Amino acid sequence: MKTAEILILGAGYGGIMTTLHLQKLLSIQEGRITLVNKHRYHYQTTLLHENAAGTAHQDNNRVNIDEVIDTKRVNFVQDEVCEIQTAEKRVLLKSGKTLLYDYLVVALGFEPATFGIPGLKEHSFSIRSINEARKIREHIQCTFARYHHEKRDEMLALVVGGAGFTGIEFVGELVERVPVLCKEYDIDPSKVRIINIEAGQTILPGFAPELVNYAYNYLKNRGVEFYLGRMIKTCTPDGVIIAQGDDEEEIKADTVVWTGGVQGNSLVGQCGFPTARGRVEVRKDLRAPHDDHIFVIGDCAVLYDEQTGRPYPPSAQITIQQAEGCAENIKALLKGQPLKEIKPEFKGTVASLGSEEAIGIVFGKIIVGTKAVIMKKIIDNRYLYMLGGFNLLLKKGKFKLF
Amino acid sequence: MKTAEILILGAGYGGIMTTLHLQKLLSIQEGRITLVNKHRYHYQTTLLHENAAGTAHQDNNRVNIDEVIDTKRVNFVQDEVCEIQTAEKRVLLKSGKTLLYDYLVVALGFEPATFGIPGLKEHSFSIRSINEARKIREHIQCTFARYHHEKRDEMLALVVGGAGFTGIEFVGELVERVPVLCKEYDIDPSKVRIINIEAGQTILPGFAPELVNYAYNYLKNRGVEFYLGRMIKTCTPDGVIIAQGDDEEEIKADTVVWTGGVQGNSLVGQCGFPTARGRVEVRKDLRAPHDDHIFVIGDCAVLYDEQTGRPYPPSAQITIQQAEGCAENIKALLKGQPLKEIKPEFKGTVASLGSEEAIGIVFGKIIVGTKAVIMKKIIDNRYLYMLGGFNLLLKKGKFKLF
């Protein structure tokens, strides 16, 4: 029996969890596991808004990959994927290296979707990676530090485009961060604006109306300016132009962060699969259409929920469950056994509004306030435990020690 | 007997120390003391290079003025001086207020001197205030954070123009800071350049050659690139163009900090006194020429040292001694007593090269290494003690607690 080459692309939630499951499930004879990732570290995308706001440091949100994988079982390659050649069953890397595979797991994550809005790509930030989150943090700090010299009001205007999960969580962190920034840079807090712009009529689409209202009122009472039912028409070096029907309005701001949409990594479309918003509609066993050797999971994949007839939302908990199923199906393939249908279970979701407020729904039950804050920490800490056991939990976990 | 109005402009070393002496020397009947300063805080100009490099936080280098003055004795006005009208004995402030005086102390400090070098004003930073130092720190951090996205080598090039006291002390801090920055922003330290450009043939003019060599070798061994005997011809948005004779060379750098010269505050020239590099040649009792009611001290004043026939250098220790003399002479004026000639004493000087190395001359004796580091701390701590007693020393002093 030949040892199978298993290649995993990306070490986000999907890639790292698939790797961890495979290194337990497979014997050395069954499979050689290779993991490719751009950075030497893994991070939690769902916490990047804290790094971007500056309320938490990026080192609390990343862990070196070789600290969580079994380096005797997994070959980690720090490199960038340039091309997936499915016919030749190989992957080309930026360094010039080529990796061959018998089975491929594509877990390359998301990109911001700008829907062709002019200027967004050039003049706005997106909360997409540790590097970009850190850039946002430093940009805000630098702009606040320059305020005393240039004294332009728009230097203190922070525009967040999009009122989905990430947008609102980021706004929540900014509410908490601004007083600290004002103290650090000797700025009058009343001059700072936090502006949230959303094309839809409410924030947090998909959440129960009472949670939406709770979050909206909480943030509004803390000074957040909401522009709902407004499209961003253009983003310029000076700010954004928003429109409602025929009415246009300019909001001047040195900082614009776009959280209004994501799509699958564009590499996935480039390798020939049919995609919608960069995402491949995978089969029930998570394999790509017409290719029995390629699994696609996480933000690059669309998997339909049979119960609702709608795709599962792109989220960490769904991806983590896909990763486990993906690893089991690879094991089944190697053993010549039938593959399982993967049916992730939606257990609930909690959105934080800074470190002291949150809203959510857990096992069908609505929670707000302290309960939701505690639940959010439990979710984050549970992930760390899954990832790196008790040691990692102690190192990076969210605890308040009294 | 009429109570005299004593007005002190500026709360740097000179202004704050004059205030502290006067509030002790004068009775309430003798004089009403008013202190005007742009900021609510006093800071040590000689430590700003640490704030600019980011090795020390600005809050360790500033103290609220109302924490050190006796607010029952001194009227503190936070405002900016716009004009001194000597004929009318009044001072116009930015807020529109006018202050009348019987005796005026001008202690408005320095400005960077750019010697007409094109572009320096627009494209370089100077280490002149808390606001500007913080701006330098944030600019470097933000540029390093953006490096992963733009990957231009010049983003990691730090040019320091001038190898005098401030320039070299700043370079010393940068040497210490760069490894920390590289860790924070995931940058390979070997890509970062610290470049010092000096028109003269050596660094630290005025220091003993053995100290100059010691400092030069220490910094060079830590990777600092020195361009000595080179003038900065132009500063551009891309860096600097330096010249040696007819040879020109461009050094690309996103960060250029100019420390190559200072001059007296330009307000002093505007009020009609003859000045050279913005400094008034004062009489031996520290009064301005032809005006018996105005004292000028610190970086706005030139006082000649009779022993050497040369002016005292603009330095904190000379200014602090002038402040004491100035207060005593105001007291003498009020009493109708003869004024003293002020002869500051040069006790020595220590230049730090980061927190773990220093060079200096103290009471005529050359010191380097640990001795000099300790002496520098003693000097800084002694000033805090003079300024705010034991409490302030405990709060802001430089100690290593084991």
Q: Would you kindly provide a written description of the structure presented here, covering whatever features stand out?
A:
- Chains A, B: InterPro entries: FAD/NAD-bd_sf (IPR036188), FAD/NAD-binding_dom (IPR023753), NADH-Q_oxidoreductase (IPR051169).
- Chains A, B: Belongs to the NADH dehydrogenase family.
- Chains A, B: One of its GO terms (biological process) is aerobic electron transport chain.
- Chains A, B: GO terms for molecular function: NAD(P)H dehydrogenase (quinone) activity.
- Two copies of one chain form a homodimer.
- Chain A is α/β, with parallel strands linked by helices.
- Chain A folds into two domains: 4-112 and 263-347, FAD/NAD(P)-binding domain; 120-260, FAD/NAD(P)-binding domain.
- Chain A has helices at 13-25, 48-53, 65-68, 120-123, 130-150, 165-184, 209-221, 266-270, 316-335, 369-396; strands spanning 4-9, 31-37, 41-43, 62-64, 74-78, 81-85, 90-93, 98-100, 103-106, 110-112, 157-161, 193-198, 225-228, 231-236, 239-244, 247-252, 255-258, 262-264, 275-276, 279-281, 294-296, 301-302, 304-305, 310-311, 348-352, 358-362, 365-368.
- In chain A, strand 19 (275-276) and strand 20 (279-281) form a beta hairpin.
- The first copy, chain A, is globular and about 70 Å long.
- The termini of chain A are far apart.
